[in-house]
Amino acid sequence: MKRILCCILLSLSLLQAACGDRYIDDRAGLMGSDEQTRLRTFQDKLLQELDIELQVVVLDTSPGDLDDAAVTLFEKRGIGERTKGARGVLLLIDPAGRQVRMEIGYDLEGIFPDAFVGYIEQRQMAPFFEAGRIGAGIEATVELVVGKVLGAIDEGSYAPAEEAGGLAHLSGGAGARSTVAIDSGIPAKPRLDDASGFAAQASPEQSLAVYLEVLRARVKDPELGLYSADTRAFFRKWLVTDAQQDNERRTLEAHIGQGQVLRHDGRAVVRFPVTERGAAPYFLIRGEEGWMLDFASMSILVGFNHRNQWHMRSLDHPFMFAFEDWRFDQHGFPHAGN
């Protein structure tokens, strides 16, 4: 009798989830209202500009078999029906069962193979969820999803405006499931026994090259001499994931040869061609030991939109000397000429 009652309650929970908010159904109450508002804006732009319908469901009762639950919800919620094909993504979070699953629609399986989905769940989503930052973890995960889609568009393997699909079902069970201990604590940031190889350098170019090695080695030690004092304080509190470092490494490797260094009064900016909207500039300051990266200032002054394109949050700061020959629109996005 008890088992039958549990099955009934579980079925009701899935039915309620299937009938909830079109974008987000947080039945466990893990996300704040501001987080949900930001995420809905992101989801709306994802649908309008990239023809991908992303839905997020947070269950309040564990279904046990999350794979079956994901397929059931995918169909019941009609995820992907608002696209030009079966281009839906479901992020299903099961706090009680300590597991998450991303279910991928048929017409996105080529872009998001199971191995990639498992990677972003474990290397991006899990650290945020373990720290109790559910909304931030979802946003950070979606950033990687968008990056993957934009790469496919550049390669010509994905065309948002073209019709696709015509399939009987929206999902065939593609995706991945990962174990996640939600709100179990912020992941440790191990200190290096010998960090001398990651010290401030004699030039901004050399410091940026050393930082590329930081990314390649996935070093998360916040006390590196390569960082300014404010940046060290910033990184002590900031969550850094393997996936974030891998993503930044790929971008920096692709653009470091195009970097232009501009210096003024103990500050430097390494900027990339204005047309490379995904390659944000790096700010550095000069100290007694050499040139140090100033991520503390970058985190305040540089933002990214839903397509991972950078913009200035403010045009009134001491690093603007490096952009005198550029102009910025009302949203802070850079353009050639002044």
* CATH level-two architecture of the largest domain: Roll
Number of domains: 2
Characterize the quaternary organization of these chains. Answer: single chain
> In the CATH scheme, what's the topology name of the largest domain?
Diaminopimelate Epimerase, Chain A, domain 1
Explain the overall architecture.
The chain has about 350 residues and is an alpha+beta fold. It has 2 domains: about 15-180, Diaminopimelate Epimerase, Chain A, domain 1, CATH 3.10.310; about 195-335, no CATH class. About 40% of the residues lie in helices and about 20% in strands. A 5-stranded mixed beta sheet has the order 1-2-3-4-5. A 4-stranded antiparallel beta sheet has the order 6-7-8-9, with helices on both faces. Strand 12 (about 325-330) and strand 13 (about 335) form a beta hairpin. The protein is globular. Mean pLDDT is about 90; it is low at about 1-15. It comes from Syntrophotalea carbinolica (strain DSM 2380 / NBRC 103641 / GraBd1). Keywords: Signal. This is TPM domain-containing protein.
Question: TL;DR of this structure?
Answer:
By secondary structure, the chain is an alpha+beta fold. The chain has nine helices and 13 strands. The chain folds into two domains: about 15-180, Diaminopimelate Epimerase, Chain A, domain 1; about 195-335, no CATH class.
Give structural attributes.
single chain; 338 residues; Diaminopimelate Epimerase, Chain A, domain 1; 38% helix; disordered N terminus
